[in-house]
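Continued from yesterday's entry.
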Amino acid sequence: MTAVSIAVEGSVDRAVAERLIRGVGGQPGTVYGEKGKEYLRSKITAWNKAAQRAPWLVLVDLNTQEPCAPRLVSAWLPRRAPFLCFRVAVREVEAWLLADRAGIARFLGVSERVVPADPETLRDPKATVVDLARRSRKRLIREDLVPDPRSGRREGRAYASRLASFARDHWQPRVAEGRSPSLAGAIACLRAVLAASAPGSRGIGGLFDGTD
């Protein structure tokens, strides 16, 4: 089984990346980053160099600083190594989790009807997850994901660990990709990179430009 090195912004992204790699038949490798978006940008050139010979997944949120994923990729890394999946979640990785509507509804304890049908159009998917948690039938979900109004925080004290748990154990990427083009692109890229790195493969051959 081929190991894929990982670079991510934080713990929720790490759980998502590991779930995606396992889902396409790979083995999650060493994890780098988990120090925010600017740290990823400072290291992307070095990781791109490493991906000349071995598979890598670098996952970053689009957020609102850039209008679209291709512009972010072009600004950060104009030329991508053959075994690098540099993928951008539109606009945050929480949108990928929301795209499994039935799964996230069960996890949060809300009706599937209140989960947005088109999560990539949300300007702030994390805020949507917290708002859904406020409506939860589960007391522990409300306590863990919703912030104390006096804290000044955007999310509850156990938000990251709870979302990471959902990503690892309950989230269905094959279901979610139907509502998330950026997720579908990440899955397709990982499949292509793993196939290209397999023994006897002739390489990717320009099938991916990293922004599709």
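--- second protein ---
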Amino acid sequence: MQHPWDRDYLPREELEREQVGKLRRLVAYVRERVPFYREAFERSGATEADVQTLGDVAGLPFTVKDDLRANYPFRLFAVPQDEIVRIHCSSGTTGRPIVAGYTRHDLDVWSEVMARTLHQAGVTSGDICQVAWGYGLFTGGLGAHYGAERLGATVVPISGGNTERQIALMQDFGTTVWMGTPSYATYLAEVAEQMGVDVRALPLRVAVLGAEPWTDRMRAEIEERMGIRAYDIYGLTEVIGPGVSAECECQSGLHIFEDHFLPELIDPETLQPVSEGKPGELVLTTISKTGMPLIRFRTRDITRLHYGRCECGRTTVRMERVQGRSDDMLIVRGVNVFPSQIESILLGIEGVQPHYQIVVDRQGSMDDMEVQVEVEERFFSDRVRELEEFSRRVRARIESTLGLRVHVRLMEPGSIERSTGKAKRVVDRRRQQ
């Protein structure tokens, strides 16, 4: 019997022939069924006949998040309502919610790619998977749930929060795989230590983490404190949810499931293709979806792509961990700043904890940035000079990397608000003025 993950080893020529065929059929499909795309293709003049190679995708129109908002809630659906069996959507905190509709075929694809995601992390049917992403309209919990079930694993659908109960169930059930956000994983480890529970002594062996940017230094911190291996996964509601790409045992990039998602990388300013290995904005076309397929969706996520064969033997393209978002990037006094840059600097300094917040304000016409970061208890002694010296060192490391003057405030352990979902890393008060 062939497993779905066998497709991760297809020769690239065979994979690319399949992608071209799917892309051509998708163009015809949306031109016929979705008024938004019919009009977009009429304006561009492109048709399915123009798709002869993968490079021809560059001639197709883009889709951006505002297009989804403008067609809220169901005008991008490509099938009648009675063929949509599931709806997920974003919170809408930054505008109209983003809605995604799924047919039974789409849910089957989603379960398959999440099963492949977990398989790459070494999860098997013998594992007990505790899902700590939220269930409901957010895609994280249900995506992980059905993927683990498709794999045959035992699912514990605890959702987010209830941290002490999370730890109790890990002890009682012998949880071997934990899934959630990386910031929640660090909080979980912290609470376990406060409870006197040695997570390293539990059966837990794997964490599958995503839904927010994180760094290799944070991975090392989580792996050390929990005695596990931590794997990064990537996805977004507009495209399918979690399961667009995932790390394998080599932890050297996230394999994109290219038989379902066609990736490109573009310069977010010029919109021109970016060479392999160079940073750019990830653009995805959903070549298998039927409910709400998207052509060239601009994710705004900044990454790099690598097409060389991975040491694991898989042939699918790998994307590097997302460095930030082109629309979430902070511009402070003309300098581009990604929160992940600052996290990487902080976690490389001994004595700094993985809890921080960036506060940007404006004094008169001048931007002002403060980095608040928790440090170990030992720094808060009577020796003020030692604390000041450490603050100066942290500030110097940040300023030398960013080329930007910043303020640093050292915080006592536990003083920055914790999250059981996505951590709030940036407070930009300029937007409130």
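Residues 20 and 53 are 6 Å apart (CA to CA). The chain has a mean pLDDT of 92. Will compare against the first tomorrow.
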